Amino acid sequence: MLTEFYLSLAHYFQFMVDFNRFTLTNGLRVLVHEDDTTPMAVLNILYDVGARDEEGDKTGFAHLFEHLMFGGSINIPSYDEPLQRVGGENNAFTSNDITNYYITLPAVNLETAFWLESDRMLSLAFSEKSLETQRNVVCEEFKQRYLNQPYGDVWLKLRPLAYKNHPYQWATIGQDLKQIEDARMEDVKAFFKKHYNPQNAIMVVGGNVKTEAVKALAEKWFEPIPAGDKYLRNLPQEAIQTEARKETVKADVPLNAIYMAFKMPERRDPEYQCYDLMSDVLSQGHSSRLYNSLLKEQQLFSDIHAYITSSIDQGLFVIEGKLVEGVSVEKAEAAIWVELNKIRVEEVTAEEITKVKNKSESIMVFAEMSLLDKAMNLAYYELLGDAAGLNTEIDKYLAVTPSRILQAAKSTFVKEQCSTLYYLTAQDV
Amino acid sequence: MFNRTLAPESKHIDEIHFIEPLKQQLDNGISVFTVNAGKQELVRIEFIFENVNWNPSKPLEAISVSHLISNGTPELSAREIADQVDYYGAFLQTEYGADQSTVKLYTLNKHLVSVLPILRSILNDSIFPEQELAIFVQNQKQSLQVSLQKNDYLARKTFANALFGDTTYGSNIDAADYDAIKREDLLAYFKSAYKPENCTIFVAGKFEEAEFNILNSVIGGKWSNHGQSTVNQFSFTETRGAELLIEKPEALQSAIRMGTLGITRKNVDFAGFQVLNCLLGGYFGSRLMANIREDKGYTYGIGSAVTSLKDAGYFFIATEVGADVCASALTEIEKEIDLLKTVLVPEAELDLVRNYMLGSMLGSLENAFSHADKFKNVYFSGLDYGYYENYIQTVKHITPAELQQLAIRYLNTENFVKVVVGKK
């Protein structure tokens, strides 16, 4: 059975998200993905700025700024309205690494997307009313997602425990409400000037479009925008962690929970894919190790997960779980360590590695069904260095071996390099 | 230089193309609806079963069977089932809905022949081991405890119960209901519900004759289950107005959910009501968003929705707002509903909504999966593609006066159930 599978992996699908690429004179990189199976088009712009680029006393700013990008630009008072008027939709997200904006609309109305996106890259309206409203909206978002939810503030605690120097120590929402409330217009303008220019952006246009037409539109709408200054990133790096870190939080939650974070290599590291597959062996699906051992067999956890943060700088390998009532947190933690030690000393089995590779392959083929996913992925891989990397990513996964996973586990799951957060119910005080 | 203040020319959306599925039948009589489309060598197969034999004293039967169906057969343990499905890179999911339960398989075509037998075994021979049931009950109770601390969850649950009482639409589940689950009941439910007469299959992806033949040879034979069943049917009396407050003194935000029983997809007013809903709270530029988020900054998000279930339709507005501005938010929501009844919607705004809704319909038909989903919507409402034709015509041509009439008819706030969880 196994041989059969190794064979089938040898002729896996040719993953192909075709694209053409050109660069405008102002430095804006443009990629075009033609897909005539849809009547729609996508225009995706990735700005190479995230929460990691913020000052320590102005955290949450990249995300607040994302909201302000919808508050009108220099020549167009409303961003959303004209887009909706031509049948389009849009949204955006901010991470610790990037800020990504996207529009989907009927391809026949593609030029509206160029008009809107180019104007806000040219300049915002910088309206005081918009700043005031969005400060409130973001504060409500902060409350809704982080403060008014059981376990909602975990990442506000775990990040500063795991990172001491690198700006990954704060979440994209920011360190506290106060810093958002204090945001001033001059900060907004400075942030725009520093990060929002053609040189710091990657645009992907996809769907029922032609490269020549996209090129003409890009030259018309985007090329007149001044190049601006290239932002050179120089972030404080994290020193190697040499002692175990532990913190206990007590809160009004019904169940005890445990979070363990280990440092892992950055996204571009050649060993990155080993870590991704290792997290799958531990935690993907009901055949995974942690689920079967800790939840089903020992019944220590009512849910348990392992995952990676996939960040561009040094990332985290996280294990988190909620404990079955009556189980002590020490016992639960020890049981996690048993599993981690196991993967540190024994190679994963041939079945396990085939399984997680097959799963990765499936996920990648299924992702090709969504135009927006394809556009976002192209932009992200271009940021990593080359959009073509999207089409060869699967090869890196298929090349992972049990011994490389063993090496990854050995160098990662070390007590001295673990940051552990106990998140306990206040009733246990 | 051109003028950046002027919008480029744009076009209206004229044509929206739906892919109608091919209807076939397995040897055992199960209908198979196939949307054969897409470039990728993959397929989604959904086995959909009507929910049956509703017993209000055992509200968790159907949902527990749905959760536990892949947890063991005489030949395979839960672990072995998971191992095999994962080994082939497939995804086996179960989904419990108020009207139907679904067993869903996603797989690459090349593994179809290997994974279908696992599915066959699950659908015929699941044994619901006591041990698996005990773990399920323990973990579901824990997860319920976490949910009960979420204001939006409480608001949803309280609202549904006020509208729908002890039916699958509104049942007010608590921990004791989990403790009462018995293995015999699950087996009995399984035997009654998971049988060919109660099953419809929907396929989307690359699915030609060869694939159909595989499906028929593995699934199209005799099945083991043939228990008695009656498909659930509910009827509801009109909602009576009520204000329900669950106080949370420590809340930073209050969850609001309000609404009423409404119409289903079968009603001639349904498409028009969707336009009205869109204007009020159905998209980012809606009146509720514009007022309560973008003007006042009271919330991260607010929306409204119309939902059509088999035996009932309902309308609701939902948001989470700063606890200190909850009362003002409630006032503003009422104000917006009132405006729809008293002032005609301006043509320019309506025109925008028309285009937005058509664009959104066009965009929602992205791949074979979404075409199949569109079909399921009409199929389970007992309708055909004429529904979408009518929807498109209504979106294009409904008048401000008609919308006003719909608001007067269906948005009677005195009859709303208004739930607040937090502080008012």
UniProtKB/TrEMBL annotation, chain B:
Peptidase M16 C-terminal domain: which residues?
181-355
Q: Name one GO molecular function term.
A: metal ion binding
Query: Coiled-coil ranges per the record?
Result: none
Q: What Pfam families has UniProt attached to this entry?
A: Peptidase_M16_C
| InterPro entries assigned | Metalloenz_LuxS/M16, MPP/UQCRC_Complex, Peptidase_M16_C
Name of the protein in question: Insulinase family protein
- Specify the species: Pedobacter psychroterrae
